[in-house]
Write a structure and sequence with these properties.
single chain, 138 residues, mainly beta, Porin, seven-stranded antiparallel β-sheet, two-stranded antiparallel sheet, 0% helix
Length: 138
């Protein structure tokens, strides 16, 4: 889940899929969408990053930085549709608990600094996000 671009949208449910290499490099795709009173805001982004971490027994903690690009769309039945490209820089971190040989439960958080067009002007936003999910070692 993350916070929406529109000022009155609030928390937006979403999903994230990430591939992280043992060397620390990662690539992720993120998407979210929520309907408000008379519009829907949807966004998707492709991110690449680098992470460092520590593991003690079944526990893992890590931190990193991700950079990426994406698109935000607001569609409505009463207002003109609005679209914007976005540039993203996101410091992030997470915790994991190993539950099997090749599986863990992971909690990840990021504070995405986003530059995009909003209401006809360039805007810079700080958007928090968090995900809880399964981590599978390939």
């Amino acid at each position: 889940m993350s916070e929406g671009v529109a000022q009155d949208l609030g928390i937006v449910p979403g999903a994230r899929a990430e591939l992280r290499l043992p060397q620390g490099w990662s690539v992720a795709i993120v998407g979210d969408s929520r309907t408000h009173i008379n519009y829907r805001e949807s966004s998707t982004a492709l991110l690449a990053g680098y992470h460092v971490g520590v593991t003690t027994g079944p526990f893992t903690a890590w931190a990193g930085l991700e950079l990426g690009v994406g698109v935000v769309a607001q569609t409505s039945t009463v207002l003109p549709d609005a679209y914007s490209a976005e540039g993203i820089a996101a410091p992030c971190g997470g915790l994991g608990l190993r539950v099997a040989d090749h599986a863990a439960i992971g909690l990840e958080a990021a504070l995405s600094f986003v530059v995009l067009r909003r209401d006809g002007a360039t805007a810079a936003l700080a958007l928090p996000a968090a995900w809880l999910g399964a981590v599978v070692d390939l």
